[in-house]
């Protein structure tokens, strides 16, 4: 007994070495995944990150739409650990954000294209006085249009906010913009990988299509700011890639989980992602139906994992919203409201027939039997096409008129070339019709959700417009696919067309950035 060694009590609780081991394994897996990506597609991601970062440098603070509201959400979450909530009758945002908005001249700029940011020295003195006053970083908790958004994007940005080496709000804003730029790089990469799954035989087509997506000006502008759209775009691009891979190569547990997590991650970033639920559901049904009899049970099990990857996070968020946070579950992500509260999707007024008419006119040419409902003439051209080509700021500046005219001709040429490719490969297209139906359903689902949200806002706002071209950017992978199909219309001229496409996209982006400099500083 005396020589026996006493038993050492077993340690329990937190074990840092285990955490470090898991982090190392995760980092190693991430490095292996990056190495498996073709070098050309790594350049796609790098170009998107650099381009979006440049946009973030050129665009003054809070001049990306609703950036003030999104920053307020992040700050309130980071400072209090609580999600924001509407506070009628109290000023929104924190005193620090409101004072900073005044210091950088924000109130006089959005909607006033002739107004520029104040001179640097004026801003410096105002910001110095602000810092000496040390205004509170915690306000009423009302983040206006962002208040009821799901929290995933803001939780990521809150980590960046807290990790900042300084407490200066504008420095924190710059660091948070870098996270959005990284998400833009991932978006462009997933879009290029999606094109590779659709057109696996032509590496130059994937790369060119990915670069065209990476350099799209509206995408670069929106993703340069603190805006939960950045995570929505990334999640939707990942979902499209996962769907294409699963439908083309067959379902496995990893592929189904990837699709499910991409979808649920998008839903927890912005409720607009729910628009893709029918497409994801159809894809899961198709991969089970297409499985060979001997593998159908395994396919069903894999799909069950994918459904769980959707259901568990989304249900957990819904329950937490209802019982822990006492806030709307899907109150945000559709139409903004000035009070910070969201109206229900189904309005008290209006009718199903009028809603269908509104959605039709929003995306398709108006039929003679329909009553004109939109405050904007010719919405398909004015809102979607011209907006996609480029309307920036708080929709208060864009390109000269001739640019939109030239762009319409280029777009017609691209569509004609893409159509030529599809016609020439009609047997292959027919063989892959299930994929096409799935992606078409995703596009239609997004349009319907945008249209219904727009109709709801049209009712409650007194017939005002809410739609913006950025709401269609979750379909960027399909845009890249159309470009790639156009480039493959001619095998001999394809590489030359690819170079031309990248040069045009580069010039398009640079021109938009020059206009941005002139808008705010010129």
Mean pLDDT: 88
Structural class comes to mainly alpha
Unreliable residue stretches: 1-16, 332-348
- The helix/strand series, from N terminus to C terminus, equals HHHHHHHHHHHHHHHEEHHHHH
Q: Which quaternary structure do these chains form? A: single chain
Q: What is the β-strand count?
A: 2
What topology, given as strand order, has the largest sheet? 1-2
Envelope shape: globular
Number of helices: 20
C-alpha termini separation? 88 Å
- How much β-strand is present in the residues? under 5%
Helix content: 55-70%
Rg from C-alpha positions? 24 Å
**Biggest sheet features:** 2 strands, antiparallel
Overview of this protein structure:
The chain is mainly alpha-helical and 522 residues long. It has a domain at 40-66 and 181-330 and 348-521. 65% of the residues lie in helices and 1% in strands. It is built from 20 helices and 2 strands. The chain has helices at residues 16-36, 39-58, 67-80, 95-103, 120-133, 152-163, 169-198, 203-214, 217-223, 229-249, 253-267, 277-290, 296-324, 352-363, 379-390, 401-424, 426-431, 433-460, 476-487, 494-521; strands at 391-392, 397-398. It has a two-stranded antiparallel sheet with strand order 1-2. A hairpin with a 4-residue loop joins strand 1 and strand 2. Helix 12 runs antiparallel to helix 18 (433-460) and helix 14 crosses helix 18 (433-460). The chain is globular and about 70 Å long.
